[in-house]
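Recall from the previous lesson that a structure prediction takes nothing but the amino acid sequence as input. Here we apply that procedure to Superoxide dismutase from Kordiimonas sediminis. The sequence below is the only information supplied.
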Amino acid sequence: MSFSLPDLPYAADALQPHISAETLGFHHGKHHNAYVTNLNGLIEGTDLADKSLEEIMVATAGDASKAGVFNNAAQVWNHTFYWNSMAPNGGGKPSGALAEKIDADFGSFDAFVDAFKTAGATQFGSGWAWLVLKDGKLEVTKTANAECPLTDGATPLLTMDVWEHAYYLDFQNRRPDYIATFLESLVNWDFAAANLAAAG
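The prediction returns the following tokens.
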């Protein structure tokens, strides 16, 4: 089977004024689409052609000879997850079980915010900041390039893309401002809560 570019879960202008329709046009329509096209070309006719995205990622992670396949598969997965990690009128604080879990594992919501901002700001070059569940506990982590905590035994709940193309048209070199805006106005806590509930 071949993969296709998933639709955005909202209109291209739905995240304005925080993330512009122009940014989403390039990021989703060009970058994400290129990863889908590249992946389909790389797996066509191979034993990976009938595997799921997650299966491809696990099968190729850490294998230098399959780095191209992993990078494109993981970027397809990461980006799809990122779009869902944001919502129009997002931001603020979580509620319910997720809020309780954050307080229990980080000490407070503010402590989580500090950890998440630090992960995003200190990821040198391209990469991602994540809220994950690992061994029953919430953690904030960061990954470089296309890496994904999924291949390290963790369950991603939420991600923020810190590749420059995610924010440069709107924030230029001000990555900390983009990170703050993500948390204050964009983050989709309902998506993170649903992922936590599904992890059981």
